[in-house]
Amino acid sequence: MLSLFILLQLAEALRGVAPELEDKYKPDADGNFHCLGSDEVIPFAKVNDNFCDCADGSDEPGTSACENGLFYCQNEGFKPGYIPSSWVDDGVCDYERCCDGSDEQPGRCENRCKELAEISESKRKLNNEIVTEGMSIRARIVGKSQGERFDTEQELEMLEKKEVEVSDKLADLQKQREERGSESQKEVAEAFKPVDEELSSVVEQADGVKKEASVYKARAESLSTILSKLNNDYNHNFNDPAVKDAAHAFEQYEANIDSVTDTSLSTEELVKKLDEAKRTIMDSLAQSAAEVSEASNFKWYMPFDLRDVVESYLAVRPQDRHKKSKRKSLTALDADIEEAEAILDVAKTEIKKRRESLAQDYGPDDILRSRSDCISNKIAGYNYQLCFTDELTQIDKNDRPTVVGKYELASYDPNTNQLVIEYKGGEKCWNGPNRQAEVRFSCGIEEQIIGVSEPEKCHYLVDAISPMACLQNQLL
Ligand code: MAN
Q1: CA distances from 195 to 188, 221, 282 (A)
Q2: In what order do the strands lie in the sheet with 459-466?
Q3: How far apart are CA 231 and CA 252, in angstroms?
Q4: Which residues of the chain are modeled with pLDDT < 70?
Q5: Cα angle at 186 between 181 and 188, to 5 degrees?
Q6: Integer angstrom CA distances of residue 373 from 155, 220, 336, 389, 463
Q7: Which of 379, 375, 412, 369 is nearest to 391 (CA)?
Q8: Using CA atoms, how far apart are residues 255 and 233, in angstroms rounded to an integer?
Q9: Cα angle for residues 70, 75, 78 (degrees, 5° grid)
Q10: Do 463 and 413 meet the contact criterion of CB atoms below 8 Å apart?
Q11: Do 368 and 389 contact (CB within 8 A), yes or no?
């Protein structure tokens, strides 16, 4: 037979018991209660009798008798909560978790669940408004970044195509140049064959004459020595007109000798001049072979569409590219080769830039790809300038900038729902490491830095707000 007391207790839910546990707080056929966390069995009358019987405290869900028990607050109209059973009936209204005031004796704590539910609801709405608006701003940023990636991919594809075209054409031009060079050389060599032969025999004869001349020169020099001696040593007291005439004639000869200069060409100069003439003829042969091309035209003639590259990246205006000559002068070929090499260099540099950019980690959804902008805020005596994908700089009151770090990578922290951007390799700290920072963005509409701390020397932690951190799972 169940006692009247138990029957009364059963009429309403037991104090402090969660609905999902209500079934366990019913007496068995023998009128007993089974402790929840052990095999202990006690008479049901001992439940909530303000005395702790079960080791896990489960027999006193509605009193403060057990130290380890938990008290359930129903909080109708708001969300239910638990408090440690030691807080029950201690005279303090624990509204944060027990807004219905059920943790204290009736009449002590008013039920504030409706009011708190309203506050919570308006907070929820505000949160959702911010997250929703933030998500749409974020979506626009992602869209812009995707657009930039697409553009870069397209440019890269075009540049790579052009690189192949330009390389092929350059090889072709170089081959033409080589062939044309040797063709002209052959033509000229053929034309000059008789002249070359004649010149060789002239050079040979001249060499013979030169040898002969040097023999005469030596003889003239020794005669000159003899006469000079005679001129110096003859006895002036002897009136020998023959000797006097000879001495006088020698003096005149000596006086005039320097004014005689050889204006004739040496054989080496002759050969050099002939080579120069051959080169000039070679070029004019090539020139005359060109049917159309004029020197002023070659620049705008391109047998391939290199100009697209130039137009896009070198800002050169479009030109008439259909003026083609069938055969070009060597000078024009050389100029084309030079121009093609220059374009190839530009194309290679631009390709490298784009490949590096595409390989760069710009965070989830590539979101930071379009963020080349900066935000800044004054915090604790410094102005912090954060250029999302470039550098974080700390500027002191004398306007002296210190690079805290360069953009490295970005990721989402699912535990805090934050976008985390890391900046590394900043300026070296005096007697310490290179500066670096972790910037943690929480969801918000207005992008701003809200706090900076330095948990370790020259390792900075920056708190910031950005719509880039607003995600669906933050909706409440
Ligand atoms: C500067 C600032 C500080 C940093 C010290 C380290 O004053 O960059 O943030 O702690 O240098 O010497």
Answers
A1: 11, 37, 15
A2: 374-379, 382-387, 391-395, 401-413, 418-425, 436-443, 459-466, 448-456
A3: 12
A4: 1-12, 258-265, 282-327
A5: 95
A6: 22, 91, 41, 8, 18
A7: 375
A8: 19
A9: 130
A10: no
A11: yes
Closest residue to atom 12 of ligand 1, CA basis: 430
Name which residue sits closest to atom 2 of ligand 1, judged by CA. 458
Instruction: Provide the pLDDT for residue 209.
Output: 86
Q: Which residues pair with 453 in a beta bridge?
A: 461
Closest ligand 1 atom number to CA of residue 457: 10
- CA 450–ligand 1 middle distance (angstroms): 19
What pLDDT score was predicted for residue 294? 43
| pLDDT the model gives residue 262 | 59
| Nearest atom of ligand 1 to the alpha carbon of 427 | 8
pLDDT in tens, 178-237: 988 887 778 777 878 887 888 888 888 888 888 988 899 899 889 888 888 888 888 888
Does this model's pTM top 0.85? My answer is: no
Closest CA to 310 of 169, 156, 162: 162
**CA 225/CA 228 separation, integer angstroms:** 5
The pLDDT of residue 293 = 43
Three-state DSSP state, 386 = strand
Q: CA–CA separation, 96 vs 83, rounded Å?
A: 10
Return the pLDDT at 266.
75
Rounded percentage of the chain residues whose pLDDT exceeds 90:
64
For ligand 1, the distance from its centroid to the CA atom of residue 435, given in whole angstroms, is 9
**DSSP structure class, residue 57:** S
Here the contacts of 266-271 (C-beta below 8 Å, separation 24 or greater) are: 267/202, 267/203, 267/206, 267/207, 270/199, 270/202, 270/203, 271/199, 271/203
Distance 448 CA to ligand 1 centre (A): 22
CB 231 within 8 A of CB 251: yes
Residues at CB less than 6 angstroms from ligand 1: 394, 402, 429-430, 454, 457-458
Determine which residue's CA is closest to atom 4 belonging to ligand 1: 458
Can you tell me the distance from the alpha carbon of 248 to that of 242, in angstroms, rounded to the nearest whole number?
A: 10
Output the pLDDT for position 326: 57
Paired tokens of 375: 């935000």
In this structure, the chain runs to a length of: 476
Q: How many of the other CB atoms lie within 10 Å of CB of 214?
A: 10
pLDDT of residue 97: 96
Q: For residue 90, give the amino acid letter.
A: D
Residue closest by Cα to atom 1 of ligand 1? 429
